[in-house]
Amino acid sequence: MDMQISRQQTAGGASGHLTIDLGALRDNYLTLAAMAPASQTAAVVKADAYGLGADIVSQTLFEAGCRNFFVAHIDEALALRLRLSAEARIFVLNGLQPGNETSCAAMAVTPVLNSLQQIAQWSGHAKKLGKTLTAAVQIDTGMCRLGLSPEELEILSAQPQLLDGIDIAFVMSHLACADEPDHVSNGAQLAVMRKAATAFPETPVCFSNSGGIFLGNDYHNALLRPGIALYGGAPSAANPNPMKPVVRLDLAVIQTRTVPAGSLVGYGGSFTASGPTRLATIAAGYADGLPRSLSNRGAAWCNGVRLPIAGRVSMDSIILDISALPEGALTQGSLVQMIGPDQTLEEIAEDAGTIAYEILTGLGRRYRRSYIQPGMSPATASTSVNHK
Questions:
Q1: Cα distance between residue 19 and residue 232, in whole Å
Q2: What is the pLDDT of residues 136-158, one digit of tens each?
Q3: What does the buried/exposed string (b/e) look like for 198-226 if buried means 16 or more CB atoms within 10 Å of the residue's CB?
Q4: What Cα–Cα distance (Å) separates residue 317 from each residue in 47, 138, 292, 313, 371?
Q5: What is the pLDDT of residues 285-340, one digit of tens each?
Q6: DSSP 97-150
Q7: What pLDDT is recorded for position 12?
Q8: Please, what's the largest Cα pairwise distance for the chain?
Q9: What's the pLDDT tens digit per position in 229-266?
């Protein structure tokens, strides 16, 4: 209890504390890279590095040896380009939207070309500039999301001049079911990828996402492309999570009270106290990335004790049933754990009926963020508010 209250006070009275362990992030990267020593290992840092701060995350990974970074949108790439060494290559997974060619070329950003239209845009801009421009080319191997269709690949194979002015850094695709190691789609996509890659002889292949790395050597190729595993998420739904946790979330108690039997709790009165019940209201809700679907299902934790959510999750607050704790164990300013040793990303996601990705990327900007640098203890973590 004393530790909880002192931590709250030293953080300036913040309502929530999001602790990001950059040492664990680095170790996860090195663990993944060691699984395929003949390959390069990239990092997916889209969506502000899954919500954890693209600038500081990317710099940490660059210092660990990462030289290839993937984002989703051009604006993410341009912002990151200003932060990272020119030695880093930044790829835009969604490719070129019309009008982005100039910015991509001027800032040395590498688009992932997903269609013949995007190829034509990039080739045309290369001709306009009178120089060769780098790109990756994505093949749709069965996910039906992004990438050249079989028909487009056939056209490109018959008309290689469509790639004039383009230096292809990688040919790539994305596994749809890699987190399910026994799923039939994995082998089917691998077969399609191998066949498609013959249209790009001598071009390196980038195929494995986080789950794909754990499918074995056949999936590794020249460049690995992990995302969720870097941030401590489980790369496979079928096996224990081998990654170090990167994120911890602690939330502050705003108020405690004891209510009599029959009391209706929260919006809609969806929870009814079956007897005298001690409640604590904590300072976060669905505006902070804790889904409304956790209502009457999820929980926070304190000293190894599960504290069920009582009633609906509100925008800025959640009510917990703390009857299992000793009287006075929680008071105003005490912290309860929402993500940490007692409750993993996967566990809170399961309670919410979603996936760890959504929980991680949805964590709001209102938490006080503390970054534990590699080799540092939590007590010396650097703290920032709304870090970007």
A1: 13
A2: 999 999 999 999 999 999 999 99
A3: ebbeebbbbbbbbbbbbbeeebbbbbbbb
A4: 25, 43, 11, 7, 25
A5: 999 999 999 999 999 999 999 999 999 999 999 999 999 999 999 999 999 999 99
A6: PTT-HHHHHHTT-EEEE-SHHHHHHHHHHHHHHTS-EEEEEEB-SSSSSSSB-H
A7: 53
A8: 78
A9: 999 999 998 899 999 999 999 999 999 999 999 999 99
Q: For residue 36, how many other CB atoms are within 10 A of its CB?
A: 19
Residue 241 makes CB contacts below 8 A (sequence gap 6+) with: 232, 233, 234, 235, 344, 346
Q: Is 6 helix (H, G, I), strand (E, B) or coil?
A: helix
Residue 36 tokens read as: 């395929």
Average of pLDDT values for 345-350? 97
Q: Can you tell me the distance from the alpha carbon of 202 to that of 322, in angstroms, rounded to the nearest whole number?
A: 62
Query: Where in the sequence numbering do the catalytic residues fall?
Result: 46, 267
CA atoms of 224 and 231, how far apart (whole Å): 15
Residue 20, helix vs strand vs coil: strand
**Radius of gyration of the chain, Cα coordinates, nearest whole angstrom:** 24
CA–CA dist 27, 29 (Å, integer): 5
How many residues are present in the chain? 388
Q: In whole angstroms, what is the distance from residue 188 CA to residue 353 CA? A: 29
